[in-house]
């Protein structure tokens, strides 16, 4: 039996690294991609290589970087079986206090980045008529939490792109799965980008206590969980039968997100049917 191949973006730490390692432990051929493989992330790259994982330089915000990585990987492995769009950053704080350029930077990584990576690897999947694209979103891809407007907007946009692509890729035998993690103790809390307009931040000083309470609450909740749960959920989706994978998987199960997903799935399905696009639902499990 041919060894299955998975690619994970943003694999230097957090969910990405754990997912790459989980795939390798399950017997997959794994490509772990990241930026700065010879500088800041050199140790992470070395550790992954020791685990038998191929490390490839890839910056999701750069066309040339993505194209070069795809050329290398596709020449070695051919079409991917699974593509995990994990790379992302987090901008948190008072929404008005982010300048347009800061918002554009958030979307460049979290939304345009996965689109750029998809364009490099989807043609081979479509030609082979099989594969799975996983998007690592967040529970805030489905709910709105104060003081996370810029990050939340990027995840809502990511989920829209993912769901629409699930319909468009279904006729080609390519599945789409959205994983929606809650708060976990990963590096995202140490790499948060705050607002870049200090004058606007000062205008919201009366809400600073509420923002701090939310941050502390999320951190406390995160510390009670094991991020390995997210990696394991992604590998389970990869191993599930094609055409039977759920479109959305909250990790862990979240009452609010579960309720939204359950309520909107039949509405969305009826909308697609009403448009006469029944054929696009054939491989989309809601």
Name its key features.
single chain; 286 residues; alpha/beta; Rossmann fold; two-stranded parallel ribbon; 49% helix
Description:
The structure is a single chain. With 286 residues, the protein is of the alpha/beta class. It has one domain: Rossmann fold, CATH 3.40.50. The protein contains 9 helices and 9 strands. The strands form 2 sheets. It has a 7-stranded parallel sheet with strand order 3-2-1-4-6-7-9, with helices on both faces. Strands 5-8 form a two-stranded parallel ribbon. Strand 6, helix 5 and strand 7 form a beta-alpha-beta unit. Helix 3 runs parallel beside helix 4 (100-128) and helix 4 runs parallel beside helix 5 (149-169). The longest helix is centred in the middle third of the chain and has 29 residues, at 100-128. The mean pLDDT is 95.
Name of the CATH first level? Alpha Beta
Query: What structural class is derived from the secondary structure elements?
Result: alpha/beta
What radius of gyration results from the CA coordinates? 19 Å
CATH topology name, in short, is Rossmann fold
């Amino acid at each position: 039996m041919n060894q299955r191949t998975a690619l994970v973006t943003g694999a230097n730490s957090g969910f990405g690294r754990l997912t790459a390692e989980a795939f390798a432990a399950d017997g997959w051929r794994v490509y772990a991609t990241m930026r700065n493989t010879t500088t800041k992330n050199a140790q992470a790259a070395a550790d992954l290589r020791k685990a038998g994982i191929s490390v490839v330089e890839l910056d999701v915000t750069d066309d040339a970087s993505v194209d070069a990585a795809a050329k290398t990987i596709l020449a070695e492995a051919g079409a991917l079986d699974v593509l995990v769009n994990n790379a992302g950053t987090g901008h948190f704080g008072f929404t008005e206090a982010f300048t347009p350029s800061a918002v554009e930077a958030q979307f460049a990584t979290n939304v345009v980045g996965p689109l750029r990576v998809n364009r490099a690897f989807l043609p081979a999947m479509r030609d082979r008529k099989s594969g799975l694209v996983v998007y690592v979103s967040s529970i805030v891809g489905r709910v709105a939490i104060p003081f996370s407007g810029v990050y939340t907007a990027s995840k809502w946009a990511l989920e829209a792109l993912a769901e629409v692509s699930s319909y468009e890729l279904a006729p080609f035998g390519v599945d789409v799965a959205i994983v929606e993690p809650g708060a976990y103790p990963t590096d995202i809390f140490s790499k948060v980008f705050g607002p870049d307009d200090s004058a606007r931040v000062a205008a919201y000083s009366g809400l600073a206590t509420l923002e701090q309470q939310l941050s502390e609450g999320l951190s406390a909740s995160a510390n009670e969980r094991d991020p390995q749960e997210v990696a394991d959920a992604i590998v389970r989706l990869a191993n599930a039968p094609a055409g039977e994978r759920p479109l959305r998987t909250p990790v862990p199960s979240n009452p609010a997100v579960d309720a939204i997903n359950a309520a909107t799935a039949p509405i969305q399905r009826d909308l697609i049917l009403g448009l006469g696009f029944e054929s696009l639902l054939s491989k989309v499990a809601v």
